[in-house]
Design a protein that fits this description.
Elements (H helix, E strand, L loop, with lengths): L11 E2 H7 L12 E2 L1 E2 L9 E4 L6 H4 L6 E4 L12 E4 L3 H12 L13 E2 L10 E2 L4 E2 L3 E3 L4 E2 L4 E2 L3 E3 L4 E2 L4 E2 L2 E3 L4 E2 L4 E2 L6 E4 L2 E4 L6 E3 L4 E2 L4 E2 L7 E3 L4 E2 L4 E2 L4 E2 L4 E2 L4 E2 L4 E2 L4 E2 L4 E2 L4 E2 L4 E2 L4 E2 L8 E3 L4 E2 H22 L6
Length: 345
Amino acid sequence: MSNPFYKNQGPFTINEILKSIGLKDNNLIKDETVSDIKDLNSSNKDNITFFHSKKYKDIAKNTKASFCITNELLKNELPKKCVPIIVNNILVSVSKVTSKFYPDSINDHFDNTTVQISKTNFQDKVKYGENVLLGENVSIGDGCLIGHNTIIEKNVSIGSNCSIGSNTIIRNTIIKQNVNILDNCVIGKHGFGFFPLDSKNLRYPHIGIVLIEENCEIGCGSTIDRGSLSNTIIGKNTFLDNQIHIAHNVKIGENSIIAGQVGIAGSSIIGNNVKIGGQAGISGHLKIGNNVEIGGGSGVIKDIPDNTKVMGYPAKNIREFLRENKWSTKQQSLTQKLKYPKTLQ
């Protein structure tokens, strides 16, 4: 899905792009026109993309992009039709190029286009509480409820029969039908993406959206960040408990259940029918397979294959965890007996 909300200021010539990242015109590169910047997966001919980690080498081999921002170590993984643009700092360069195409995507100031819902065409279509505000380019389906003090900022589409709780803020988001979003949620703001550069933090543009599929529930106090170059997706019939953080570019499959205070770091992919216990943490850029169960309080730092149960930190197979925990308990008991003889206990 292309971004429906941010206006592309391109096309630009490749030499204009090189200049924006501090590179001189390259006589070996024809001054072709570049229409957009996209990730390795979704890029097409006349697009520029980026490749910054060997983890994505299999995707890089099949990219359709005409140009790719990368480094000397990774350039040979690209197809011959994709011209490598060699830089010292790939992600900083990507940030600058994205800002050139989408300058409005950098900041996330409050939406000054909002008006009271009572002054819009939705006043007779939606049941709403006190002090509900709507921004520009908002659509709301039939049978929806919106709670008190909620702000639906610009660029939001809400399907039919949805319930939006009180004190919630939503922007840059597509919500399908029959979705419940409970109180105090923040959905569609930019993610935690920036780079320290010259004693400052360079903010990374976020041109993606949040997509919440049908029949989902988002618990109280949860935050879902919009994507940077791709989208953040919550799959059909997935339920999130309270106080959950979903970072940018995360994709959660269908029929998954995530308990309270779970954090999922950026660009991780969660499969279908996944269950995650409370206060578990998932590191970034991981792939969690289908039918996986992750115990509460676990720390996941590597990929997990399908049909696996894990627990602990670092998360490991549940049988291994229980076996080690049982041994640890026995060791503690023995140490206690040696340290404190029976007469002193």
